Amino acid sequence: MYKILEAKFLAPQVKLLRLEAPAIARRRKAGQFVILRVHETGERIPLTIADSDKESGSITIIVQGVGKTTRLLNEKEAGDSILDVVGPLGMASEVEHFGTAVVIGGGLGTAIAYPTAKALKEAGNHVIVIIGGRSKEFVLLENEMKEFADEVYVTTDDGSYAEKGFVTDRLKGLIEGGRDINYVLAIGPIPMMNAVAGVTKPYGIKTVVSLNPVMVDGTGMCGGCRVLVNGESKFACVDGPEFDAHQVDFRLLSTRNTMYRAAEQSALAEFEQDHDDHECRLMKQADAQQSQPAQA
Amino acid sequence: MSNPLPAKERMKIPRQHMPEQEPEFRRANFEEVNLGLDATLAKQEALRCLQCTSQHCFIGCPVGVKVREFIDLIVEGDYLGAAAKIREDNVLPAVTGRVCPQEEQCEGRCVLTKKGEAVAVGYLERFVADYERTHGKVGLPPRAPATGRKVAIIGSGPAGLSAAGDLVQKGHEVVVMEALHEIGGVLIYGIPEFRLPKDIVRQEVDTMRQMGVEFRTNVVVGKTVTVDELLSEEGYDAVFVATGAGLPIFLNIPGENLCGVYSANEFLTRVNLMKANRDDHDQPVFDCRGKDVVVIGGGNTAMDAVRTSLRVGARNAAIVYRRSEQEMPARVEEVKHAREEGVDFKMLTAPLEFLDDGKGWLQGVRCQTMELGEPDASGRRRPVPIAGSEHVVPASMAIIAVGNGGNPLVQATTPDLKTTRKGYIEADPNSLRTSKKGVFAGGDIVTGGATVILAMGAGRQAAKSIHEYLETGAW
Ligand SMILES: Cc1cc2nc3c(=O)[nH]c(=O)nc-3n(C[C@H](O)[C@H](O)[C@H](O)COP(=O)(O)OP(=O)(O)OC[C@H]3O[C@@H](n4cnc5c(N)ncnc54)[C@H](O)[C@@H]3O)c2cc1C
Ligand code: FES
Predict the structure, then answer these.
(1) What pTM did the predictor assign?
(2) Which ipTM was obtained for this model?
(3) Gap from CA of A259 to ligand 1 centroid (Å)
């Protein structure tokens, strides 16, 4: 059992959970992830470790409620527990003195990129952060990034906040404006990472992406997480999750990620149904209680 | 000897049949296929043993189970005694009685095979082990006084479990670290319920827990903690690496990454460990109900995968194997059961390409027919393609079961641990010592994919050798 020490929403359906996991906290480096199973009949899902603290023996994960398990995690509060958490898995981010490093986060990806961005700064880079969100409420960690980054830009798809447009528009702007960029890290939805790779490729800028294929064990035992990189099959859980963006077959990744879509959608629908029923019952109970005459 | 019958009479008794679920029925459920002998059948079978002095059965057993003696105890009706006799050499009799390739070991050597069928040693082993489980308590072996020495065992498959059982009896403190959330290795995530009920494995693990073994799940050595840290900061005196051969080998042919193409490890883990086939469990697995499934390979893993696919609803399930049935490494019983359940065996057939339906999903496997040529390095006749024999086998799901390599996580983070060209850990065949002081290795991580009994044997051997090392301190 892994106890939840802190739980708070960062954006609608995006929740931060700090877990007690001293063994993981001790060794974890930026870019690594855990696999967890919420309860006995739950599935195993990978989640990036957004932060860790050796002293308190805790790790932080940030969960976007997109499926049944992540929605379930969204409902967890401090004091609750998670049955299984294993890690830190995968290779750590490559953190070096590159010169000027651009870190791009799309939606939840910003949270995942945050620790590496910070590490890049500590390694002496000039760090430029570009945060993208569908709309204002999905712009994550802007202030936290501003605390250390040399420059922070924000874009929203719908223009509800900061610049209207995509992160790639801002990236292109920087490159075309003559900025000498030595390294780009992009983490976010697959189309975004693919688009970033497309922007930097003609300029030969080293670009790294963090991939999120379906996983089971996270130890290289099943091969379910295989991705094609430079025409070669790699297991993202042990060889990654970060890979050279210019070599990744994004189309394959997004197709493979749809493998369980039907099952996921029905599980989510069922979850929501149960959830609604539950809420309805609670409401009814509350109503019933209210309509009862107050005891003298 | 307690057998009252003269040899001639014994030889007249036919080999007893294992009662089993009917194929039509069992192919749709996960209940165990073999139902086990009852006492009458077991006794009858035990009477067949000639109690010969040559004891080829004992020689044929990789861990030296005293077969003749335990069978004699069955004849006497002392089933618990028989179980205890087996336990002297084999800590998991309920498991090996079910999954050992007896036809290549004890039974394969039985003198009766010269004139007819071997004594069903496997059935008898299973009978007494099950009897012990359901009647009487498994007597906990006495534990030596605490030695104050600590041993870390990495991996909880048969190699790790048997080493743990022996070491804890010697009075050492034993901690088993397992990457997954459940203990048992391949016995839990690989071999399906219908061949090895998981309750049996759990019960064995519980027994060890009662003996004092500590189990830690969710620990990936090499990631959560390293071997060096175990030996230094964490204060372990010795480490036994028993991480198995858990790195799935793919075929490196086009289309291997299409949706619907699995490694056997992934498919079996989803179903066995994660219960993906059950509505009350969340892990998904490709829904093959009413669809065609192809499994590539001819070993136990392939048989398990293909029979599991039937049980989760496949319409047709076929084995594609590039050699002939004779060369198939699977246990004979598994092949027989698979055939009875309606598995289609496409022998001398090699896959060339997984075909895309245009949307990234599998729609078939392009194959080629083979014929057998000259023997190759393994002594088996090499399959050679027949020109113009290409054909497509339709399939919505394909499972690749052509073997596993050594998982490199421990080796990669333990630089002074020598490995073979194939990535397995180098260990002395007798002492199981590796190139690193205090570190021993055994089971599939040393031999490559082998058998439960060999892994168990390695675990015992390691325990003996580790105990010696802890006593003498000499490396
Ligand atoms: C589907 C299938 C069917 C089989 N059927 C039969 C059969 O019928 N008869 C037979 O005799 N044999 C059979 N085998 C082979 C047999 O199961 C193996 O030879 C045997 O299990 C090997 O035992 P082991 O202890 O070496 O490793 P494993 O059983 O593989 O156990 C290794 C364990 O170590 C864990 N591990 C790995 N790396 C780490 C790490 N870094 N840190 C912590 N833990 C780690 C793994 O998660 C695993 O639980 C079958 C194998 C498979 C896959
Ligand atoms: S998740 Fe199983 S090998 Fe990567």
Answers:
(1) 0.92
(2) 0.90
(3) 27
